[in-house]
Amino acid sequence: MEIACSEFRRVFELPLGRIKEKLLAAHRRVSLEGRETKVERVLHPSQANPQANRNWEGDIDTTLRRLGDQPGRGKPPMTDAILAILALGGLLLAGYAQVRLRHHTATALEGELIRLVLIATGLGVGWMTTLSRPGMTGLTTVLAFVTGFGLVHLPAAFILWSKRQRGVYR
After folding, report:
1. Quick one: 86 and 152 in the same domain?
2. Tally of domains within the chain
3. CA-angle at 14, arms to 39 and 4, nearest 5°
4. Residue 93 class from Cβ within 10 Å (0-12 exposed, 13-18 middle, 19+ buried)?
5. Could you say which of 18, 41, 66 is where a domain stops?
6. pLDDT digit string, tens, across residues 70-127
7. pTM
8. Model pLDDT for residues 64-81, shown as the tens digit of each residue
9. Which of residues 20, 36, 66 is at a domain's end?
10. Helix or strand holding residue 39 (H, E)
């Protein structure tokens, strides 16, 4: 298993088992694409080795920390900034779609029904977006949610914009 560390400058080879460790040590004596490479063994989870099955993810995190990585902090520094831009775009799309609906639907009831469907779908997609990357915390979670919410409104906003450009109302 090859894992790039949070700085994206080093690669850790974490072979699952002793045989794989020996093979990698023999073949990885030179650096990988100019990056430092280090071979470190972790236990292979199996029924034959109950110790390896106990807290396997924690053992890998501990190994990575010992090697100088910080698991869970491996996102590039611009991730939140890019996510913030996407979330802002999503909010603008959602706002535009929600405001323009009343101008392009035949009845008020139809507009309210479409509005509710968009909001409910946006909440669902936003929630699923937050679940897509385990380990997201704080601001990143909120930005991911808002981005997913806004993404649902993209098709509706485009259709309503198109109708406005053609002068089609109600």
Report:
1. yes
2. 2
3. 90
4. buried
5. 66
6. 555 555 555 788 889 999 999 999 999 999 998 988 898 998 999 999 999 999 999 9
7. 0.54
8. 667 665 555 555 555 788
9. 66
10. strand 36-39
